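Incident review: delayed structure delivery

Summary: a single-chain prediction request sat in the queue longer than the usual turnaround. Root cause was a stuck worker, restarted by the on-call engineer. No data loss occurred. The affected request and its eventual output are reproduced below so the record is complete for anyone auditing the incident later.

Affected input:
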Amino acid sequence: MLVPFATQVAGSFPPEPLAVLVYTGTVALSATCLSVIGLLVWRRPGLRRDADEPPVPPLASLVTSGALVLALLLGTLFQAVNYWALLLLVLTAPIESWLRRSRRSM
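Output delivered after worker restart:
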């Protein structure tokens, strides 16, 4: 519901901190809500389709939410960085695979 407004702000205004805050904040909030839903499903077997199978932790959504929050902070606090902070999302796949490998070795 808020994403079209935030996208319009990003397309209409120069990359000043308020525009970066509105757009990146909306995307980060949306991703965080999806992460919370993933955590709720992960922790409650009754909400999963296959409750008998061991649950897979929602690492991807948590890593993505963390990267978006970090991008929000960097993009709004450092005006030269602005939307370029969203390039942190490129690092989410390597971080997720590193977390999965380190989790298996435990």
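Verification: The CA atoms of residues 45 and 51 lie 5 Å apart.
Action items: add queue-age alerting; document worker restart procedure.
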